[in-house]
Specification:
This protein has about 100 residues and is an alpha+beta fold. It has 4 helices and 3 strands; from the N terminus they run ββαβααα. A hairpin with a 5-residue loop joins β1 and β2.
């Protein structure tokens, strides 16, 4: 059975990178060594692996990767730190025009 990983890296400039792979050690080495000059992490090395999650099905991994790529850095860090209660709080809309804030 294949295993797929969704991972979050912290770059040297503090930015977070989210990716997916079927071989996490190889992929982290590629990021660290800068094998692809067009990669987001190339000029932001060194990178640090903060989080990874395993999936048995590629479709699950793709879905999760796309989902967390849209998250804010604060929300990603809450996931990394296991602060699952904060995920809900950080997901709530705080826009003044949101229906919860209308009188």
């Amino acid at each position: 059975m294949n295993v797929y990983y969704v991972y979050i890296l912290k770059c040297s400039d503090g930015l977070l990178y989210t990716g997916m792979t079927n071989n996490i050690s190889r992929r982290i080495a590629e990021h660290s060594e800068g094998r692809n000059k067009n990669c987001f992490t190339y000029k932001r090395r060194p990178v640090e692996l903060l989080f990874h999650q395993c999936f048995n099905y590629v479709n699950q991994a793709i879905y999760f990767e796309k989902k967390i790529k849209r998250w804010s850095a604060k929300k990603k860090l809450a996931l990394v730190n296991g602060e699952f209660d904060m995920l809900q709080i950080l997901s709530e809309c705080r826009n003044a025009s949101h229906y919860k804030y209308k009188l």
